[in-house]
Design brief:
By secondary structure, this protein is α+β, with helices and mostly antiparallel strands. It contains nine helices and eleven strands.
Length: about 290
Amino acid sequence: MHVTAEKAPAKLNLALDILRKRPDGYHDLRMVMQSVSLCDTVTVWESDAGFMMEADGILLPKGKKTMEEQAAEAFFAEISCPMPGLRLHLEKRIPAYAGMGGGSADVAALLRALRRRYAPELSDAALEKIGLTVGSDVPFCIRGGTAMAEGRGESLTALPPLPDCRILICKPEFDLPTPDLFRRVRVETLKNHPDLDAMASALEKGALSAIAGELGNVFEEVLAPEERQEIQLIKDVMLHGGALNAAMTGSGPTVFGIFEEATSAKQAEDVLKGRYMQVFQARPLKKICEGNE
């Protein structure tokens, strides 16, 4: 039995702006995305028939195809090969409904594992195209590293890596499903737009303090008062503990802070763990994809 295991790193949005609502109902976004060392693990092997999936740490949907099954079908259609029976196991560490792309990361890891086993000649661009059929964040999660993402998130431009640092991550005890947040958005009323060009410039210079100074997320403007209060509390703990800055990632509600010093990050982590169940330390990752360009 051939078993393939693949890490599935979470993503953070160092900066996120919403530009406009499109005629198709989606929104045009501009974001700087960063993969981090907080990971799920995806393990896949051949089975007798069909597609079977099990997971630790999350309930799987019933009665409909998972994103993973859709991705596997699209992969084998792309390489013009019948899909074998597959069994998939997810070891979950990335929080769900957290703005960290956990589902997209798992799909991306599965696609990388399938390529390694069945089509090592398949290019990164082809794999990202397959991923896009399943979700807008999947192409970035396949590629990893640091990138400017535009459109729905599928148009990617590589950026210099985030310098090594400690990233403290905390998810409060409520969920914010992405569709719900988008339904709250009225683009014309958004005011605090992050400066994505300044963020890209700071990354070019490798200046961690300048990068941290440009963190921002327009989704924070559409939070309900009680949500905003909880997220601000987490930010305050991080900032008082020595973070260079802190922000919500994606559609939230997860908050992350960037620290230069490991000791400061650990102290803030200990404080947050006294109140919240899902608190993690991570570090930035460089490019994940190792296929053909």
